[in-house]
C-alpha cells in the first residue's frame, strides 16, 4: 500500500494528495498516469501524475471529486494508505525544443499540464500558459505554473479573475501577436475541441491529452477508444496524447455521455 504524506484542498471539489511511491517517482515522465484503487472492491481510477519528487520518493495526484470513487479517495487523510497504485502508464509526452509553446489548460486540466510545462521549459522552449476556469475559485496551480512559464494568462468565464473570456480568447491573443510553434491543450473535451479548431485555423500544430475518457487504463475494456485520423486508438495505451487536429472530438464527447 501507498501512504498519503500530504493533503491540500486546492479549490471546491479539487484535492491534492502527495503519495509515497518511490519506484513510480523514479520512472515517471511528463504525460504518464497511474491507476488508483481505494478498497479491495474499489473502482480503478486513472489519474495523471502532476508532479514527482524522486528524493522523497513521492508522486503528486490532483483529484476532482465527481463520483463515488473519487469522493472515497479524497476522503483519505495524511497517514492513510491507498489500496493499489500502479504506474507509470501511458506514453510520455514528446518533449523537444520547438520554440514557443502555448499550454492551454482548463480547470483540473492544469494538473497534468504542470509537468509538461516544466519539461518544455527545461528543453529550452518559451512557454506561455493560458489558465482558464469558470471562476477565480476554480483556478488551480497558478503559482506553480508561473515557475515554468514566461507568461501566464488567466481567463475566467465570469471575469472574477484575470481576463473575462474563454481559454480560446487567450490562446488566439497570443497567436495573433507572435509565432507559436506548438500548442498543448488539456481540459474538458469540448474545450479541447474548440482550441483545436482555433489552432487549425492558424496552422499551429496542437497536441491534446484525452485522459478524461480513460476507465481501465490497460487497453482491456475498450471504453477509451477514439478516432484519430480515421483510425481507432485506445487512449490509455496509444496515448493519452494525440494530434488534436486528427481527433474526432464529437465522437469522443458522444461516448463520454455514456458515463452520465
Describe the structure.
The protein has 2 domains: 2-89, Translation factors (Elongation Factor Tu (Ef-tu), domain 3, Beta Barrel), CATH 2.40.30; 100-210 and 252-259, Nucleotide-binding domain of ferredoxin-NADP reductase (FNR) module (Rossmann fold, 3-Layer(aba) Sandwich). The chain is 26% helix and 34% strand. It contains 8 helices and 16 strands.
Largest beta sheet: what is the strand line-up? 6-1-2-5-4-3-7
What's the domain count? 2
> How many helical stretches?
8
Please name the CATH topology of the largest domain: Rossmann fold
| Extended strand count | 16
What are the key terms here?
single chain, 260 residues, Elongation Factor Tu (Ef-tu), domain 3, 2 domains, 8 helices, globular
In summary, what is this structure?
The protein is an alpha/beta fold and 260 residues long. The chain is built from 8 helices and 16 strands. The strands form 3 sheets. The protein has a 7-stranded antiparallel beta sheet. A 7-stranded mixed beta sheet has the order 11-10-9-8-12-13-16, with helices on both faces.
Map the helices and strands.
Blueprint: E1 2-11, E2 14-20, H1 22-27, E3 33-37, E4 45-53, E5 58-64, H2 68-74, E6 81-82, E7 84-89, E8 100-106, H3 110-122, E9 126-133, H4 142-147, E10 151-156, E11 163-164, H5 167-177, E12 182-186, H6 189-201, E13 206-209, E14 225-228, E15 231-234, H7 235-238, E16 241-243, H8 249-256
Parallel strand pairs: 8-9, 8-12, 9-10, 10-11, 12-13
Antiparallel strand pairs: 1-2, 1-6, 2-5, 3-4, 3-7, 4-5, 13-16, 14-15
Amino acid at each position: 500500500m501507498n501512504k498519503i504524506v500530504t493533503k491540500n484542498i486546492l479549490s471546491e471539489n479539487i484535492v491534492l494528495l502527495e503519495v509515497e511511491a518511490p519506484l513510480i517517482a523514479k520512472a515517471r515522465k511528463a504525460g504518464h498516469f497511474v491507476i488508483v484503487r481505494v478498497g479491495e472492491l474499489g473502482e480503478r481510477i486513472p489519474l495523471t501524475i502532476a508532479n514527482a519528487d524522486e528524493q522523497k520518493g513521492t508522486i503528486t495526484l490532483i483529484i476532482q471529486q465527481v463520483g463515488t470513487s473519487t469522493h472515497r479517495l479524497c476522503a483519505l487523510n495524511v497517514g492513510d494508505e491507498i489500496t493499489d497504485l500502479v504506474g507509470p502508464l501511458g506514453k510520455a509526452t514528446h518533449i523537444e525544443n520547438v520554440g514557443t509553446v502555448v499550454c492551454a489548460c482548463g480547470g483540473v486540466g492544469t494538473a497534468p499540464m504542470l509537468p509538461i510545462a516544466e519539461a518544455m521549459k527545461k528543453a529550452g522552449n518559451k512557454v506561455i500558459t493560458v489558465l482558464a476556469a469558470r471562476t477565480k475559485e476554480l483556478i488551480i496551480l497558478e503559482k506553480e505554473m508561473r515557475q515554468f512559464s514566461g507568461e501566464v494568462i488567466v481567463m475566467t468565464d465570469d471575469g472574477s479573475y484575470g481576463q473575462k473570456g474563454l481559454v480560446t480568447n487567450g490562446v488566439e491573443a497570443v497567436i495573433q501577436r507572435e509565432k507559436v510553434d506548438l500548442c498543448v491543450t488539456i481540459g474538458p473535451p469540448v474545450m479541447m475541441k474548440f482550441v483545436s479548431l482555433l489552432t487549425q485555423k492558424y496552422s499551429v500544430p496542437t497536441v491534446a491529452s484525452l485522459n478524461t475518457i480513460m476507465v481501465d487504463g490497460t487497453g482491456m475494456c475498450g471504453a477509451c477508444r477514439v478516432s484519430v485520423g480515421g483510425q481507432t486508438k485506445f487512449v490509455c495505451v496509444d496515448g493519452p496524447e494525440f494530434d488534436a487536429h486528427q481527433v474526432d472530438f464529437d465522437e469522443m464527447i458522444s461516448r463520454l455521455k455514456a458515463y452520465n
